[in-house]
Amino acid sequence: MLGFLKRRRLPADKRPKLGPDERVVAWAGATGDNVVVATNHGLWLPGVEQRLSWHEIHRATWSGRQLAVVAARELPVGDEEYAVMADLPPLVLTLLDPDRVPDQVRVRVNKSIAHTSHHPLDEITGVRGGVRVVGRRVPGVNGLCWTVRYDEGVDPAATGVAEQTHELVAWARSSIGTAP
Is the pLDDT of residue 113 over 90? Predict the structure, then answer.
């Protein structure tokens, strides 16, 4: 009775080593007898020993069969107020039995974003292109973590770029009421 309410169980041999407060919210069978596991903290991908946290995912798209995930890495720029991020190559996974994984990825990545705005840099600096300023919620961190992502071709070391970026991050923080 009520068999349609039964929850699918992740096979024990496919379960990743979860953190203390981490729980599985969805999982999907993928090609090659692999699984993709979504938890309340992030996404466990085949062949990866640690999870990709929701705030580390810059973009994810679902085609109806393939999940494409673009993660970001921090560049060594050295500002305490924000991190400069760059996209990693997309990871494309074919999900044979997607269940609720695509929906959970969309919802949880979106929930991690508290602020996002894009600003052109060329007006003041003469640099063609812009910068995206993002404030994200990170589990275990009080307040927001701020990142910037420059448009392709923008040199963060160009004259005036760092100064204008710092002002834009300060503006974003004040617009949502968070101090540095």
Answer: yes
